[in-house]
Every structure is written in structure tokens, then in C-alpha cells.
Amino acid sequence: MSPRIRGLLAFRAWLQARPSAADALLAAGLLLVGLPQLFLSDVRVTGYEQMFTEPDALGGALVAAVTLALTWRRRAPLAVLLFIVAGGAVLAALRYPPSVPDVVAFLVAVYSVAAHRGLAQSALGGLLAFVYFVVMLVALPVPLSPMVFLTDCALVIGVWMLGRNLRLRRAYFAELESRAARLERARGTDARAARIEERSRIARELHDVVAHHVSVMTVQAGAARRIIDRDADSARDAMSTIEEVGRTALSEMRRIVGVLRTERDMERAGGELAPQPGLGDLGELLDHVRETGLSVQLWIEGEARTPSPGVDVAAFRLIQEALTNTLKHAGAQARAWVRLYYTEDHLTVEIEDDGPGTATIMAGDEARPGHGLVGMYERVALYGGELRIGPRVGGGFGVRARFPLEA
């Protein structure tokens, strides 16, 4: 880029940052062009020497004052228009002929009121300017044809409409920019909310996986410790179950944490994201629980329907968490029942046990609710379901959740 172009761009930026200076330069340019023409012209050449006063220093000063008022046309456009109208009336009263600077200053003032003020002030200024202009044309000692009169009036109206349209256009673009900024802020807020929700989801998943599998491993380890001296084969089976459950827990934890990895990380690790568990994996879950010694029975009523993926995972995790609580609080000697009720629009899940762990669970919940119970409520509520947790009639504990099949 040449130095001349850079200088012009810098000067333009300087003027944009200082609008009053740009307006002052506009007024000075009008005077520089118009004043010499005003004093060099001879009214006697026009044949109206008896109608106009010969331009003099007073007339030049008035024209200069009217034109230089444009310096404040953006700060106070209505006041500038009133000043120019008053100056024009004084020039007409002293019978000075119209000149380029004061006529152009009047039109610029009309444009400024329309472009830089609201509808009320711009309409008032436009009406005042139009009335003043019509009066000046009528009072002008020079005869005007109807076509010239209409053309001059249309010029004033056109200048006002031009300023008004430019103001509306600027307001439209400003609204677009404001809307884009709001959308950007909203997108950032949504992204933060999504991250928070994803962290909560992963925390629930990790809690369910760790709590269930560690509970199973703890029960199996205790059983192996008690029978290792008198039944080594059963103890070895229990240790094998612990090993299998531990590997399953590690596999599920890697899958959950793997959601946070990028595709490149997954390619380097050579792994794939496994699907989330669902009610189709309920048989495997119950087999793991039965290996701890807990008797679990499953009933399915109604025509089995495929729930939405989120409800499928939520129902599975609810059953997993409830059976884990049964193992921890009721013990492996208790019995548990899992029931699935399918209707046309809903899925009801019930998990009950006959163990003595009700008091322990409720006391802990009242003192400081654990992550398991809180996670149950959060998970069910997330998919628009209803959850009831409490003691069971006849002893034991029960969990009942009702999910819509389409979350």
C-alpha cells in the first residue's frame, strides 16, 4: 500500500473518531467555495438590483455564522436547524440574495435532524424547515414558476426522507449487531450449561459403576475370607468373580471417561466407545448380583416396548443403584424383586427387598443424603419421570420409578 493511500486512510479514521472536526471541515469547505462567489457576483447582472442588497461585510459575516453552525450539527441538530433558519430569516429581512453556503447549510441541517434524532424531533424539525422554506420562496422578490416551486419543495422533503431512511438503516444494523452479540453470549451460556450437565452425568455414571461393582467385590471378598479355610474351591470361585467384576468395572470406567477424549486420542489408544448399558443388559446385571448370594427375581408385565435411549440407560442405572443399596444395607442374605411394567406410554420400574436395612438408609438420607439417592432423583427427574423411595410394607425397602417411554 502506497504512503498516500495509507495517509488517506489514517485521515479518514481520524475524522471518523472526531465527528465535530469533520463537520467543521465541511462548513469551512462551503465557505471557501461560496464566499468568493458571493462577493464576486454582481446583483446588477441579474436585473434585480432594486430587489437585493449588494453583499457586504455584514452579509458575509451572517453567511459565515450560519454555515459554521454546521460544526455542531450532530451534537444538537435541532438547535443548529433553528439557528440556520433564524439566520436565513435575518438575511432575507436585510434583502441579501441567497448564496450557496447558506442554502446548502439549510439542507444539511434538515438532513441532520432527520438522521440523528428520533421521530418526534425529526418530524418537528422537518415541518419547521418546510414551512420556513415555503415562506421564503413565496416572499422571494424573484418570480418563480410552479414547476420550480414544486421542485424546490420536493428537494427539501427528499433531503429529510434521505436522513430518516439512513437513521432507520443504522438502527437496523445496530439491532442486528446487538442480536448477534446476544446470540453469542447465549451460545456461551448454553455451552457452559452443557458442560456442567455433562459433568453431572459423568459423575452419576461413575458413581453407579463404582458403587455397584465395588459392593459386589466387597461381598465376594468377605465370603471368600470366611470359607477359604474349609472350602478352597468356593473361595477360588469367589476370587474369580471378584476379578471378573473388577475388570468389568475398569472397562465401564474407561468407556465413561472415554467420552471426554477426542477422536485423535481414541485413535491413538486404539479403542472404541462402547454403547451405554440398557435394559437389554439387565440379565447380565442380575447374574452378577446373584453371584454375591443375593436372591433376585425379575418380572416383566405388559408388552415390552423400546424406550428412548436416555430412559433405557436411566432405568438400568436405577435398578443397578437400588440393588447396590440392597447389598450394602440389607446384605446378601436378603431377597430382592425387580418388576418392569410396560404400558402404552410409560415404563414403571420397581425394586424391593425384604432386608433389615431400611433404618440405615433412611437415617443416612435424613442426616446427609448420599450420592446414590440424590443421583436417583436427578436421573429420574432428568427424563420427566416420578420417583418414590421408602420402606416397604412388611419390612424391607422399595424403589418405584415411572418413566415416559419417550423422554
From TrEMBL:
Residues 310-407 form the Histidine kinase/HSP90-like ATPase domain. It is an enzyme of class 2 (transferase). CDD domains: HATPase_UhpB-NarQ-NarX-like. Pfam families: DUF7134, HATPase_c, HisKA_3. It catalyses: ATP + protein L-histidine = ADP + protein N-phospho-L-histidine. SUPFAM superfamilies: ATPase domain of HSP90 chaperone/DNA topoisomerase II/histidine kinase. The keyword Disulfide bond does not apply. Signal peptide: none annotated. It comes from the Bacteria. GO terms for molecular function: kinase activity. Its EC number is 2.7.13.3. Keywords: ATP-binding, Kinase, Membrane, Nucleotide-binding, Phosphoprotein, Transferase, Transmembrane, Transmembrane helix, Two-component regulatory system. The chain crosses the membrane at residues 21-40, 52-71, 78-94, 123-140, 146-163. This is histidine kinase.
